[in-house]
Design a protein that fits this description.
The complex is a heterodimer of chains A (635) and B (250). Chain A is built from 17 helices and 19 strands. With 635 residues, chain A is α+β, with helices and mostly antiparallel strands. In chain A, helix 3 packs parallel to helix 12 and helix 14 packs antiparallel against helix 15. Chain B starts with a strand and ends in a 5-residue tail after the last helix. The chains are: A alpha+beta (635), B alpha+beta (250). The structure holds flavin-adenine dinucleotide and FE2/S2 (inorganic) cluster (FES). Flavin-adenine dinucleotide (FAD) binds next to helix 3, helix 6, strand 6, helix 7 and strand 15 of chain A.
């Protein structure tokens, strides 16, 4: 696996790349077309930036408006090492925090570039009119997020993702207005078209008419977001899916870090069997909220009646130097440990408390309301509980996929001309992502990296023969997509797609979630195989082939069933604990993760071999020139 | 609890439609309204019928994709709550609930409860942005924004584009939606330069779509999930008139 890392010292690599990247003559740019699948932060920023340079762009999303991509739901903030607080931040420190946060399972060069480009993103967003929080002096405000000891998180109340996305959306709308971007909402990508080893187009389904359509281009960008929804109950949106990347995977793009899934420590707990999603309560709450459970297992008293000495602030106890701001993987696992030990609270005994009484006492209710008002309101809307008066109930939930399609330093997958941006790629977060780094990564990929690397690729395609949608590769891909749809519609069994999705989710939470074991993973692989067979026997999709959400769901679940099996294989093959990947067999006596750098200091990239063939593993060794591998400790 | 439902069913854009009755047992209070519809769809699949199509995605009140008229009110009985955040604890055993799509000439129905809100996107395309291309931005702290100005801009920018304001308005006016954007951008120093053209272009596009005029009934603010203030409409009208008086027509 060649990551194509530029030569030179770490701090100069990105400059070196930019200085040597090929350019396309402005007159030629409008003749070059790029397809962008996804209008989240990564897709919208990439599509707008390429159009501004003069390229023709076709852009797709499955929602009814590009402004609704799930980036919109990010609450807490976005990191940048501006060092406005003069608290010792720097590009290097942010780089180091991210590498360490990822448990030394990401590429130095990528992570350095992420930190290096972070400052420019804040500049860009402010110029677009993103209303970040301000000090009374008019300067930008910052707060802290988990896993770091500096204040480098920029935020717009509890709706940072929405505001950043609206900035990118508006930039995209401006380009639609100029005619350089053709926007296709309510379209779902069903397949990638590869011609002579190069990505040259896609097959999409118009979700209103049901018609399959073909689009050809000189390069294809996938910015289709994360696949955490595979767990069914998650903090993701209902439509989030792996289909775009999975179908590209089946066309030859490798998947990497597949089982590295972040389970967020502060989501609302499941409250019943009909539940369709778990709402996140931003991690920023941990700046002022303290997490605890009753010291006595099974204590049923009202939280306000439990006196201080009978509370266990377990994060402060176990990780005194980071306390409530310990990284997500560690906080989630610590919560699970307490819940499993019988200290869980709430009706289903599946939650822990997040308590603001101390902060309200110290700072006043108004200050807390200014910082988190919308989160408290949201909490009340969903649970009916006033969190100013009693602690919130929170619990871990599947949230973010560090894994995704493998990309090299230029964000190109193993298929030439197929670029993968944002959460859809595996790149910068290693085995665990730090809070507020992922909005950043999606934006940096789209605004600052792809606008150099895609033109560099296109420069080499200028003289290539243009592929049109009449090419036989399009006939084949469309016919396959149609066959798949016909198959799903024709099974006519007795169980809806949700049934399979929920069962798959439950199985993955059990065996490939916060903690994994050889025995559990082997069982999961077997059971997912059975579930998949049952799916093709008993699935029932009603309705026609026009607007049909059941058909859409079924297609996504079919892909999830294949991806779920690969997640388990990936987790099984990695015989160590690192970041979010906690193998029960590899832990210290006090329950901390035990990494194995001798045997597993690599990224696992998996190649598809066909439906009934096992995937082939291609390790990409991780070489650390700048940092010394150390045990990650937040004690 | 047992809930009776009367739901708008329509096969296709511009096609005929009508209310159809359903009864759903075993509804629990902690179900969200959309989870109740999921359960109904589960029953319909069991019977081999086409499911009820409705829009939704985030299910946490921020994407703006959901939106139903519930007993004649946009997003249902609670003020400032999206349909996806409404829970069945707001209803009682034996209730009959009427569910219809958001209705407006500018929002054609696609199927059942799904509508086409692309008119909103076209309004933003006409000028709802600050033209700051990638790479052209100055150092962020070189643009000072007073704390209260940033907060006020945020209040306007918080709009989720769900269309409840239009659905509620007896004239199907988009004034609240459009003003939220013009005010958000023109409050900020970065967005002032383009403010006159922006307000002209966006209002022209709003009028070109089939939205009606605003007659200041203020019903929109009551339903808005983000509590966007109708004062923004006054600010927009003022900016619009000022730009025309100064002769800078869009
Ligand atoms: C609740 C929540 C809170 C978060 N909070 C934070 C935070 O505070 N800070 C932070 O840094 N990160 C946060 N994250 C993570 C971060 O928001 C995401 O990782 C990031 O926004 C992903 O952006 P994206 O552009 O890659 O994907 P998305 O924004 O998910 O966009 C995906 C796009 O792809 C399109 N798409 C997908 N599949 C298809 C298909 N098959 N065909 C056509 N189009 C398709 C969708 O329509 C959409 O437009 C949060 C995540 C969640 C879920
Ligand atoms: S589904 Fe996103 S706002 Fe309701």
């Amino acid at each position: 696996m060649d990551a194509k890392i530029p030569p030179g010292p770490l701090a100069d690599k990105w400059n070196y790349y930019k200085a040597h990247a090929r350019l396309v003559n402005p007159a030629n740019r409008k003749k070059m077309k790029v397809i962008v699948v996804g209008t989240g932060l990564a897709g919208a920023s990439c599509a707008a930036s390429l159009a501004e340079q003069g390229y023709a762009v076709d852009c797709f999303c499955f929602q009814d408006s590009s402004r609704r991509a799930h980036s919109v739901a990010a609450q807490g903030g976005v990191n940048a090492c501006k060092n406005y607080k003069n608290d010792g931040d720097s590009v290097y420190r942010m780089f180091y925090d991210t590498i360490k946060g990822g448990d030394f399972r990401s590429r130095e060069a990528n992570v350095y570039r992420l930190a290096e480009c972070s400052a420019a993103l804040i500049d860009q967003a402010v110029a677009q009119g993103v209303p970040f929080a301000r000090e009374y002096s008019g300067y930008l405000d910052n707060r802290s997020f988990g896993g770091v000891q500096v204040s480098r998180t920029f935020y717009a109340r509890g709706q940072t993702g929405q505001q950043l996305l609206l900035g990118a959306y508006q930039a995209l709308m401006r380009q639609v207005h100029t005619g350089k971007v053709a926007l296709h909402t309510r379209h779902e990508m069903l397949d990638l078209v590869v011609v002579e080893g190069k990505a040259k187009g896609i097959i999409v389904r118009d979700l209103e008419t049901g018609k399959l359509e073909r689009y050809a281009a000189d390069a294809v960008v996938l910015a289709s977001g994360g696949y955490g929804k595979i767990y069914y109950l998650s903090t993701l949106a209902m439509g989030c899916n792996a289909s775009a990347i999975w179908r590209a995977h089946k066309k030859g793009a490798y998947m990497a870090g597949v089982s590295w899934v972040q389970v967020h420590p502060t989501s609302l707990p499941q409250s019943g069997q009909h539940q369709s999603k778990l709402t996140l309560m931003s991690e920023s709450l941990r700046n002022d909220g303290r997490i605890w459970v009753p010291l006595k297992a099974g204590d049923t008293r009202h939280p306000n009646d439990i006196p201080e000495p009978e509370r266990d602030y377990y994060l402060e106890r176990r990780y005194p130097s980071f306390g409530n701001l310990a990284p997500r993987d560690i906080s989630s696992r610590a919560a699970k440990e307490r819940i499993d030990a019988g200290h869980g609270v709430g009706a289903m005994k599946n939650a822990v408390y997040l308590d603001f009484s101390k902060a309200i006492g110290e700072q006043g209710k108004d200050k807390i309301a200014e910082k988190y008002g919308n989160l408290f309101t949201m909490y009340q809307k969903i649970t009916g509980i006033n969190a100013y008066a009693q602690p919130m109930l929170i619990s871990p939930a599947a949230h973010f996929t560090m894994g995704g399609l493998w990309v090299d330093y230029t964000l190109m997958s193993t298929i030439a001309g197929l670029f993968v941006l944002g959460e859809a790629n595996f790149s910068d977060h290693g085995a665990n992502r730090l809070g507020a780094n992922s909005l950043l990564q999606a934006c940096v990929d789209g605004y600052f990296v792809a606008p150099y690397t895609i033109p560099d690729y296109l420069a080499g395609e200028l003289k290539a023969e243009k592929v049109t949608t009449a090419h036989p590769a399009f006939d084949l891909a469309e016919a396959l997509a149609q066959t798949k749809i016909d198959e799903l519609l024709s099974i006519q069994g007795d169980l809806p797609a949700d049934y399979f999705h929920k069962n798959l989710g439950r199985l993955l939470y059990d065996t490939c979630g916060l903690s994994r074991s050889k025995e559990g993973l082997e069982r999961a692989i077997r059971e997912i195989g059975e579930l998949r067979q049952e799916f093709y026997r008993r699935l029932k999709v009603t309705g026609d082939d026009k607007v049909n959400t059941e058909l859409e769901k079924a297609g996504r679940v079919a892909d999830y069933l294949e991806l779920g099996a690969l997640m388990c294989r990936d987790a099984l093959a990695r015989e160590e604990s690192c970041g979010a990947h906690f193998r029960e067999e590899y832990q210290t006596e006090d329950g901390e993760a035990m990494r194995n750098d001798r045997d597993f200091c690599y990224v696992s990239a998996w190649e598809w071999q066909g439906a009934d063939q096992p995937h082939v593993l291609h390790p990409e060794p991780l070489v650390f020139e700048q940092v010394a591998l150390s045990t990650r400790s937040y004690k | 609890m047992k809930i009776h439902l009367k739901i708008w069913r329509q096969d296709e854009r511009d096609g005929p439609g009508g209310m159809v009755s359903y009864t759903l047992d075993d509804v629990t209070e902690d179900m969200s309204f959309l989870e109740m519809l999921d359960a109904l769809n589960g029953v319909l699949i069991g019977k081999g019928e086409r499911v009820i199509e409705f829009d939704h995605d985030c299910r946490e009140g921020i994407c703006g994709q959901c939106g139903l008229m519930i007993n004649g009110r946009a997003h249902g009985p609670l003020p400032h709550v999206t349909t996806c955040q409404l829970h069945m604890r707001s209803f009682r055993d034996g209730d009959t609930i009427y569910i219809e799509p958001f209705r407006a000439a500018a929002f054609p129905v696609l199927r059942d409860l799904k509508i086409d809100r692309s008119a909103f996107d076209r309004i933003i395309q006409s000028g709802g942005y600050i033209a700051a291309g990638t790479g052209s931005a100055p150092e962020a702290n070189s643009i000072l924004v007073a704390h209260d100005t940033a907060e006020a801009a945020f209040d306007a920018a918080a709009c989720i584009g769900c269309g409840a304001c239009v659905a509620t308005c007896k004239n199907s006016s988009a004034a609240l939606f459009v003003s939220a954007k013009t005010v958000h951008l023109s409050l900020l120093p970065q967005g002032k330069l383009e403010a006159p053209q922006r307000v002209n272009a966006m209002i022209a596009q709003m009028n070109a779509e089939q939205f009606g005029p605003c007659s200041n009934t203020e019903a929109c603010e009551v339903e808005c999930p983000q509590q966007i203030s109708v004062l923004h409409i006054a600010r927009m009208n003022w900016a619009f008139n000022k730009s025309r008086l100064l002769g800078r027509k869009g």
